[in-house]
Amino acid sequence: MAKIVRIELFMVDLKPKVKRQDAIQSFVSQETPFVRITDSDGVVGTGYSYTIGTGGHSVMALLERTLCPALIGREAMEIERIWRDMLFMTHATTVGAITAIAMAAVDTALWDLKCRKLGLPLHLMAGGAQPEVALYTTEGGWLHIEQAALVEDALRAKAAGFGGCKLKVGRPIHQDVQRIGAVREAVGADFEIFTDANQAFAVDEAIRRARAYEPLDIGWLEEPLPADDIAGHQRLNAHTSVPIGVGESIYSVLHFREYLERHAASVIQVDVGRIGGITPWLKVAHMAECFNIAVSPHFLMELHVSLCAAVPNARWVEYIPQLDDLTSEKMIIADGKARPSDAPGLGIDWDFAAIDRQVVEGSRSTMDQNS
To answer: What CDD domains does its record include (predicted)?
Structure first.
């Protein structure tokens, strides 16, 4: 094995190319912390995570001051052991978004290093369960977009071979029903329509809306309630035939366990950047498999495509392109489905010259065994 001898940190701030607005917020920026880890054999692994415009500098401070200094001299291949040590090192700030996002950047870098060292792509290293995964798009379904444009985007996605689209909900209920109904009428019965409330509703409102959406045959209702309201999700799930999706705002494997044990969700949308990395992502995916529940992760399609291909119960990859300006090659799409890269590593072909041009001023730091 080889020890960690150098760690580089920096952050890029990406602006969305389209306006992204949901029931509670606008997605104005993707702060993207990067971690590059070098071992004593000279192999380098690159990891990353993200925020949606707040907290990025706090993530970088946690990485620079607490997590990464403790990694110098550690065995780079001991990923599980390092992840557990980081968890207990930050026990006073766990469970929480800042800590999980920081840990994810480190953990994905270690997995990238391991895959590159062994010459294998992530989708095989982590399981190799399926060669491709169905794709749905969210980019044309934001809440501010008018009905006619929703229909046009859904028809384009269907023509491109995508299996579905996602529409944001949270307008007055009759408007949501009209918008979903217009898309359903246009695309027909053989195209999935998913909906996403972004935690906007109370339980009574969520039950009412789910019942109104049922005749439109939607694939799921995502984040209908605040993510920490497990009892509310349990009640809602018992009152509707619409599958209930949760996960993008859950930061602990144990919280997913509670949802599964209490039958409070039907779709698990675990996000590698928010759960703390690949190590806990795989635990959640396999735990969901034991409950015969599908995984359809949130965002980060360039990384999730490989993880979805690694496990047997992954059903969908969410199409929201965000890394095109930082990569030399885009995610592989064939016949409307996402396919993982066979290149060693995470499967992301970083353009480091492009990244260097967009690094946030003052965010760079480096530590090594001589520091």
So the answer is: MR_like
The pTM score is: 0.96
* Same domain flag for 171 and 30: no
The 8-class DSSP code of residue 82 comes to H
The answer to whether the CB of 313 falls within 8 A of the CB of 139 is no
Average pLDDT, the chain: 96
DSSP three-state, residue 130: coil
Q: Are residues 213 and 298 in the same domain?
A: yes
Residues 335-353 have a mean pLDDT of: 97
Report d(CA 196, CA 171) in Å as an integer. Answer: 12
* C-alpha dihedral, 136 to 294 to 33 to 124, nearest 10°: -100
- Is 270 a residue whose pLDDT tops 80? yes
Confidence class of residue 23 from pLDDT cuts 50, 70 and 90? low
* φ/ψ bin of 297: left (φ > 0), alpha (ψ from -120 to 50), beta (otherwise): beta
pLDDT of residue 26 exceeding 80, the answer is no
Percent of the chain as helix, strand, coil, to the nearest 5: 40, 20, 40
The two structure tokens encoding residue 102: 């920081």
Tell me which residue of 319, 311, 279 sits closest to 295, measured CA to CA: 311
Kindly report the CATH number assigned to the domain that includes residue 211: 3.20.20.120
Q: Which of 55, 163, 177 has its CA nearest to residue 105? A: 55
Catalytic residues: 168, 298
Contact 221, 197 (CB under 8 A): yes
How many domains does the chain divide into?
Answer: 2
Does any domain span residue 66?
yes
